Every structure is written in C-alpha cells, then in structure tokens.
Amino acid sequence: MHATARIVASPGDRLDVLYGEAPLLPRRTGPNEVHFVGGAAGPLGGDRLRIELQVRTGATLTVRSVAATIAYPSRDGALSTLDVCATVEAGGRLEWRPEPLIATGLCNHRTTSTVDLGAGAELIWRDELVCGRHGEGPGDVCLLTRVQLEKRPLYVHELAVGPSAPGWSGSAVLGGARMHASTVYVGVPPAGPGTIMELAGGGTVVTELR
Question: pLDDT tens, 151-177?
Fold first, then answer.
C-alpha cells in the first residue's frame, strides 16, 4: 500500500490543506489540532506511507493520533516505511504527539522523520516505541529523527531494535526496558519525566525508558 497525508496550517487557526489516504486519515479535532484515525490496518510489510506537515509563519499545529500505530508482522520480511516530513516556518509552532508505535514480533519497519525549523520556530516532537505486544519480543524497527534549525543540523538520532540490531536490549541502548520515548523541545521549556540533554544548537531532548 502507498499512501500520503498532507496538512498545511496557516495563522488564524486555518488548515489550508487537510488531506489523507487510508490508513493515514487526518481529522480536525480543535482550532489548531488534528488527530490521525486508522482507515486500515498498517503499516504492513511493503507499505510506503508518507506524512507531510507545513506550519506557515505565525501558525500553530498540534498533531496526535486516536490510537497506537501497530507495525504488523511481515510474512515475507518486506520492509514497511513511514516518512514524516515537517516544515515549520519562522515564528510557527508544531507539536507532534502521536500515540506509541508498537513493534510486533516479526515486523520489519522503518520510520524516518525530518523536521526543518525556521528562525524563532517552536517545536515539541515526541517519538515513542513499545517493543512487542504482551508476551512477545519486537521484530525489526528503526526510528531515525533529524531536526534542522535554519538549515543547520540540530538533532539526529537513530534507534534500532529487534533481531537485526545486536545489543539493542543491553545497557548501552534500552537496558532491558520495553518502552523508549524521546521528546525534542525547541523554543519551549522541557516537561515530563526522563533524562534531560541540552542540545548545543539550542533546545532540549528528554528521554524516558520503562
């Protein structure tokens, strides 16, 4: 399955574009808030999914989901991908707060998130991964997040878990935890529990393991 969703937010709580294809179906739930609802099961092996977000100068946008995303088992080992590309223009604000990604046993999935921030833009970007359902370990999942501020790299992080990622559950990575969450804050103070790391170019990352 190939599917794309696109959201464009403008000042005055306007959504100039609100478009999606199953399973990526965005629904407006507030003046500047959108929730994704599941229009079909996925991602499944071989799926190619893409979300495009644009927050124009002075606009705000909060993106959530109504339920966790489940990376389902891949029968033939085919890779499923989700690419999230976000642009926040000068003075804009974006909050990306979806429910967790659940990596089921035998899945093979990659999420790549790219965020470009303009001068004075504000960002809250949360990625949360749950390693397996009850009583199972995860399949192969890789989460790659890149954030740029005024075209300069600010934050790059990759997390890989599963059989193809040796040592992923060891002390250098998850340390036996089954849940990993990281939240990037730019232009806003950090909140919530976790380990705080200041970024050299401005901003903060809060990491939580459970």
Answer: 999 999 999 999 999 999 998 899 989
